[in-house]
Design brief:
7% helix; Thrombin, subunit H; globular
């Protein structure tokens, strides 16, 4: 079936650079259509490969030239990334979920339970270091995988050897923040149980000069409504990646399309369902490892939710955490995401307009 403009699924991406004063500034905006590959359904599909040029005026972003063009999937994979974890001495990187950048400086969102995976799956320890503050074991590391542009291998000008030969880039976290608390058990022999307030985590990915600015999706204080189209984009059923032997495994994105069926705008003072914090349900197919994926609502301009879980009663029943209610919560150095957006120092786009 040929898609009409109403049916077209798109994503609005921004291109960022640092100006002469070292301040993040928006260079351009470009919408990308996400089309199903041949043989895929229009509601659950891999992305058709088309070449896109993200700006007509490279100019000051020429140092980040390879982020401004490429196939559709390559460009989307710069913003939506596999979240990985590994311990020192491991032979494999564990692919534990999906995340997405929200700032050019490397702020990233995923589901809190993705970051809790090492503890829940018992391959890391965690200790309390202060009130409502915990620390994972020193051997544990988190990060994301970013794709390498195939065009870099044969670039006709001088670039760093690491960039020319890379299959993908491993970018480690500096820190991760999520909201919850330990609840003491009345049974003395049981350890305190962690209870999340929200299934959302905000993380900081270390900057890398070889990569340049990270390419964020847009967030904002915009609500959704029943019947809105909800598009989740992530990496289902990823396998682990071997560290030895040059494993060139490339996780593939899936686009899963549904609509908003139920909204729980509070779900804290009055518990209405099992997903922590303000959330909504939508009727899209969400396999494992898509937790933490962005949910773009409506025309794809704003990411309004984060995939929390598949509810399991049918193949098309999932929940997503609402982003807008947590944007005022203090997190990074007591500042909220809204503070950082208004401050303009992190490269977070501020989207204003009707219908968002």
């Amino acid at each position: 079936m040929k898609q009409t403009p109403k049916d077209t699924i798109g994503i609005l991406k921004s291109i960022w650079r640092k100006n002469e004063a070292g301040v993040w500034t928006g260079h351009d905006l470009k919408g990308i259509d996400l089309k199903p590959r041949e043989g895929c359904s229009k509601d659950y599909f891999k992305i058709k490969s088309e070449v896109n040029l993200m700006t007509q005026s490279p100019g000051p972003v020429i140092n980040n030239f390879f982020a401004t063009f490429g196939t559709t999937e390559f460009l989307v994979r710069q913003s939506i990334v596999p979240v990985i974890a590994w311990n020192d001495g491991d032979e494999e990187i564990r692919c534990i979920g999906t995340g997405f950048f929200i700032s050019a400086s490397g702020l990233l969102m995923t589901a809190a339970h993705v970051i809790r995976d090492p503890v829940d799956e018992d391959y890391a320890t965690v200790s309390q270091v202060g009130k409502n503050a915990h620390k994972f074991g020193e051997d544990l590391h988190f990060g994301v995988l970013l794709p390498a542009n195939p065009a870099m291998k044969n670039a006709p000008f001088e670039i760093h050897p690491e960039v020319r030969e890379a299959k993908w880039f491993m970018c480690p976290f500096e820190w991760a923040y999520f909201w919850g608390k330990d609840v003491e058990s009345p049974l003395l022999h049981k350890k305190p149980e962690y209870k999340p307030d929200l299934d959302i985590a905000v993380c900081k990915v270390r900057e890398r000069a070889a990569i340049g600015p990270y390419q964020p999706l847009n967030i904002g204080l915009y609500s959704l409504k029943l019947g809105d189209r909800a598009v989740a984009i992530g990496y289902p059923e990823m396998r682990n990646i071997r560290l030895a032997g040059g494993d060139d495994y490339q996780p593939e994105l899936i686009v899963s399309v549904g609509s908003v069926t139920t909204i729980y705008p509070d779900n804290i003072t009055e518990k209405q369902n099992a997903t922590p914090g303000p959330n909504f349900e939508f009727n899209a197919k969400i396999p494992g490892k898509m937790s933490g994926s962005p949910i773009l609502v409506g025309g794809g301009i704003i990411t309004k939710g984060i995939v929390s879980r598949s509810l399991g009663s049918t193949d098309n029943h999932a929940s997503g955490c609402l982003i807008a209610p947590m944007m005022n919560l203090p997190s990074i150095g007591s500042k909220s995401l809204l503070d950082l957006m208004n401050g303009g120092n992190e490269g977070i786009a501020k989207m204003i307009g009707p219908g968002l």
